[in-house]
């Protein structure tokens, strides 16, 4: 049998061994049970039980120290992560994972507040298996987490599902139920006094969270808040550095652009002051930009070209590109060609097109290109001012040429000829004169366009007696009037009527030619030919009546000359047939009786006349011309000594016919 002094010693040794091994709590009851089994007395039994209680206290103290050591280690590790912060998501995942491990929970997660949406959203989870739970958003004050985010205080629930202290919502409850959570602890993430989110630890079983767990999770939440704020500050610093670099580069680029712009401005200014023109500016700009360059005026006419590459279509830049540059005041790129409108305020003076650079033109070079447009606008305005001054001189000369001489005085043609020669006008050549008319509101534009056409033709243009008059070297006034009416009408967008006369043999004949052209213009309006152009010969017998020199022989030759020549060459009787046809009221039956021929012969002869004179010979206006010419011819035949001899046949000049009429032989 064991002695009283030896038995308690064995149990005490066993308790020490259990402490050394860190045995589970339930094993510490075994020494006391062994003592009772061995028949220990009350005193020994009490001694063993007291030793067991002390051993359990020692074990709990050691457990607390170990847990505290683990917590401190985790906090130190977290601090180390923050010191080497590179990836915010990685740091947050590490904090959430340590919270789960240290608190021994099934799940840990972290939410961040969204100030724009006014709620808090899931950012990081550890141990979660539910996709719906991982995408939860909690409104402020909703659920346990929403309440923590709103109040900045930690909250714990041993069984959240049955806890009525919190405002439950279907979305939150469904997410929590799908994840299977029961016990939940949430602590705020604070940066100063501002709450930026919530850190959670949760179990899938009912659990009470001790104050130590709350303190530990709060410490980890503080580290997480520091990590988030440090990442924010780091990102702001990086952004500021990037913005500073961009600002520095922008300032450098702007400084370089200003230097280049100033240098270019000086070069172009010196060029203009030396008397350079548009071509010189084009060459300078093309050399600076390294491409082909074309300058055109407002009508698309080419003023200068530099480089062999085509800079846009031959007719000028696309209309939509020019309109875009004009409205925006900037150069635009279309199909690899840069277009810049040349403007004087809202007025379009022309355009510049740059080719060979593609769509990639840096801002500095684009501004240089646009500056070239400004310089070109100044040159074009200067050229226009010079042209306006020259037009005034030309207009004054034209007025002197058209003004009739005072009674008893003769024009000084010599001085006027010298003045004209200085302007590049040779009055020794035959000149036709055209009087132009349009709406009164557009008369100034018509005068400017007429001056431009006159310069191009080596003539004169200007206002005389309130009318736009153009003098040009030609012996064909009719075609000149028709071309001017068509071209100027298209430019002005309104009908332009042109009456012409001439040609004048010399300066002294111009006042009379002007009077004839004016009568021709009035006749065109009276006949309803507004928007057309004609000379006096084109008006038929009206031209004979309106002209100062009534050349009836020329009129007969113009109307019937081809028929007379046909009779002379072939021995036919077309003229006699026409006389009988009109004398008998255009009746085929009475005509064949008067000529003593078959009606088919009359039809054949009239068809031959149609082939010679044209389809409209028998229209009302044409028939009137033919009858008048026949009567003049008969009178001339009755006076052989003074009758004019018709000249050699010429192709007929058809008189103007009223629009819409068709010839219809009658009989």
Q: In which range does the helix fraction lie?
A: 40-55%
Please, what is the average pLDDT? Answer: 78
Measured by DSSP, the beta-strand proportion falls in: 15-25%
Pairing-aware structural class of the strands and helices? alpha+beta
What's the quaternary structure here?
A: single chain
Shape: elongated
- Unreliable runs: 1-5, 639-667
Main beta-sheet annotation? 6 strands, antiparallel
Can you list the strand order of the major beta sheet?
Answer: 3-2-1-6-5-4
Number of strands: 16
Radius of gyration: 56 Å
Number of helices: 21
Q: Report how far the terminal alpha carbons are from each other.
A: 172 Å
Can you walk through the features of this model?
By secondary structure, the protein is an alpha+beta fold. The protein is 55% helix and 15% strand. The chain has 21 helices and 16 strands. Strands 3-2-1-6-5-4 form a six-stranded antiparallel sheet. Strands 8-7-11-10-9 form a five-stranded antiparallel sheet. Strand 13 (460-464) and strand 14 (467-473) form a beta hairpin. Helix 4 packs antiparallel against helix 8, helix 13 crosses helix 14 and helix 19 crosses helix 20.
